[in-house]
Amino acid sequence: EPEVTQTPSHQVTQMGQEVILRCVPISNHLYFYWYRQILGQKVEFLVSFYNNEISEKSEIFDDQFSVERPDGSNFTLKIRSTKLEDSAMYFCASSTAQGSEAFFGQGTRLTVV
Amino acid sequence: TQLLEQSPQFLSIQEGENLTVYCNSSSVFSSLQWYRQEPGEGPVLLVTVVTGGEVKKLKRLTFQFGDARKDSSLHITAAQPGDTGLYLCAGDGGSGNTGKLIFGQGTTLQVKP
Q: What value does the mean pLDDT take over residues B86-96?
């Protein structure tokens, strides 16, 4: 069964460092998303991406964040200068169409120390 | 701001009991999805409801979308220990239907043998 895959599963980084979280969406999906979940809190939307551009982003997704689809398979989330409060599980998701069912990856646990 | 409130937040029951989880909002959603999340993993889609009043069944799980499309419920019949997990509801929240999902805070279910 097709699935969304994310790497790494766990990333530890020092405050101020840049991190790139990687995702391989399901191959025939066209819409891509990043969400995050701080421990014990809700899953929060970060950004949606379609046709090589951001279609919507949340207030959390400030200038420190960026997304890219560098080739036909990968979808990345970059945090330029990590802060302690960026520590969270980051989930990538993809869907075939706007508003259709979203399938999530297993997540990357980011720990900023 | 669209919000989804789930209740109860925690539920601990004995194997064989029935239970209902509620997902409520003051906003109208064109669709609502239910996910189950295991610790350290991504949400796994259970069902999507799109029509007001719609009822969907998945084995012992029954999902209902309110007539006004502002609320939903998940009913589990004869719960089993394997049903233990975090149940999340999520509604489409994008302006222009970008696929953005608004999540509830989740209901943690524990089914004791």
A: 81
Per-residue pLDDT at B19 exceeds 90: yes
pLDDT of residue B95: 54
Q: Is the peptide bond before A8 cis (omega within 30 degrees of 0)?
A: yes
Interface mutation vs chain B, best among A21, A24, A39, A42, most B CBs within 10 Å? A42
Question: Which chain A residue is nearest to residue B36, measuring alpha carbons?
Answer: A104
- Mean pLDDT value across residues B48-58: 94
Distance CA B108, CA B39 (A): 11
Tell me the mean pLDDT per 10 residues along chain A, length 113: 92 97 94 94 94 92 94 93 97 86 94 98
Instruction: Please count the residues of chain B.
Output: 113
Please answer yes or no on whether A99 and B96 come within 8 Å at the CB atom: no
Q: Give the distance from CA B67 to its chain's centroid.
A: 16
C-alpha separations of A10 from A20, B41, B88 in Å: 12, 12, 23
β-strands A10-13, A108-112 pairing: parallel
- For A16, residues 6+ apart whose C-beta sits below 8 A from its C-beta are A81, A82
Cα(B64)–Cα(B67) distance, rounded to whole angstroms? 9
For residue B99, pLDDT over 90 is answered with no
Is A109's Cβ below 8 Å from some Cβ in B? yes
* B93 vs A contacts (CB less than 8 Å): 45
